[in-house]
Amino acid sequence: MTAAIIDGRAVAERVREQVAGEVAQLVERTGRPPGLATILVGDDPASVVYVAMKRKACAEAGIADHHQHLPTDVSQADVAALIERRNADPEVSGILLQLPVPAGLNGQDLTGLIAPGKDVDGLTPISVGRLVRGTPGLRPCTPVGVIALLDAYDVPLEGAETVVVGRSDLVGKPVSLLLLARHATVTICHSRTRDLSAVCSRADVLVAAAGIPRLLGAEHVKPGAVVIDVGVNRAEQGLVGDVDFATVAERARLITPVPGGVGPMTIAMLLRNTLLAAGLQESAGAQSAA
Ligand code: NAP
Predict the structure, then answer these.
(1) If you take atom 21 of ligand 1, which residue's CA is the nearest one?
(2) Whether 54 is catalytic
(3) List of domains in the chain
(4) Which residue minimizes the CA distance to atom 35 of ligand 1?
(5) Nearest to residue 178, comparing CAs of 134, 138, 137?
(6) Residue 232: helix, strand or coil by DSSP?
(7) Cα→Cα distances 129→89, 132, 229, 277, Å
(8) Is 56 a catalytic residue?
(9) Candidate from 190, 197, 206 with most ligand 1 atoms within 8 A of CB, to mutate
(10) pTM of the full structure
(11) What is the pLDDT of residues 61-107, one digit of tens each?
C-alpha cells in the first residue's frame, strides 16, 4: 500500500478563507474587526519567525494586529501589566504570549493571566479545565488542527484505536483529550513506554508528537493506519518529522508530510480561535446590554 498524502496546506487554506469570510461578516455587523494581540519577549529567532507568520496570516484574514515586542530584560510585572491591559481592551479579541519566554520570566504564570475568553492558544488553566471537562472553550491550536485534518479526510474516530506519542501540555495531552471527546479509544505513549512499536502498531490513527526525528518507522505502523506527524525537527536535509515518511508511507493509508501537514493548520486554527473569541465577546456584550 502507498499512502495518500494529507494536504495540510490545502485544508488550512480553506479554513483561512472561511475565517476571512466570517471576519468580513462580523465587521459588517459590528463595525469592528476581531483583534489579535501577540506579545513577543526577546529575540529568539524561531519565535520571531513564528510571530511574524501569525501576524501576516491575521492581516490576510482581516484581523487587526495589536503586536507588542518587549525587550529580553523586561520584568515579569511589566509583562503581566501588559497582559492585564490587553484583557481590558475591547479592541483585543485574543491574546497570544509567544512561548518560550526568556529565562527569568515564568511563561506558565504569565499565560495564566490571560482572560479565558481571550485565550486563543487554549493554554490557561481554565481552558485546560474546560477541555478536560468537555465544556465549551478555546482549544489549543495544533491539537485542534490535528482533529480538523482528520475530519477533512473523513477519518472515523468513534471507537477507533488511537495512539498518541508524546504527553506534553502543548500537544500530546490536549490532542489525546480531543480524540477522547470524539469517542476514540486513546493510548498515550511517552519516553518510559515499554515496547513502543507494539503499542503504536495497534493504532488505526497514530499521532506522533515526540520531537525526535524519524522516531517512528514502518514497524510502528499497522497496515492501513492513518498517521499524523506533528513533529518538526531540524535535520541536515531540512525539516523532518517524527515519522520516517518514506517507509511509513508504504504501509499507511493516509499520512501527513513534514512540512505541509500539521504545521499550516496551527496558524489557521489560531485565526479561527481569534474569530471564535470575538464572537464570544460579541454575545457577552449583547447579553450585558439586554
Ligand atoms: P515536548 O514538550 O518535548 O514533548 C515531547 C514528548 O515526547 C514528551 O511527552 C516525551 O515524553 C515524549 N517522548 C520523547 N522521547 C520519546 C520516545 N523515545 N518515545 C516516546 N515518547 C517520547 O514536545 P512538544 O512541544 O509536545 O512538541 C512535539 C513535537 O511537535 C516537536 O517536534 C515540536 O516541534 C512539534 N510541534 C509542532 C507544531 C506544529 O505546528 N506543527 C506545534 C507544536 C509542536 P516524556 O514526557 O516522558 O518526556
Answers:
(1) 190
(2) yes
(3) 31-115 (3.40.50.10860), 141-263 (3.40.50.720)
(4) 231
(5) 134
(6) coil
(7) 25, 5, 26, 17
(8) no
(9) 190
(10) 0.97
(11) 999 999 999 999 999 999 999 999 999 999 999 999 999 999 999 99
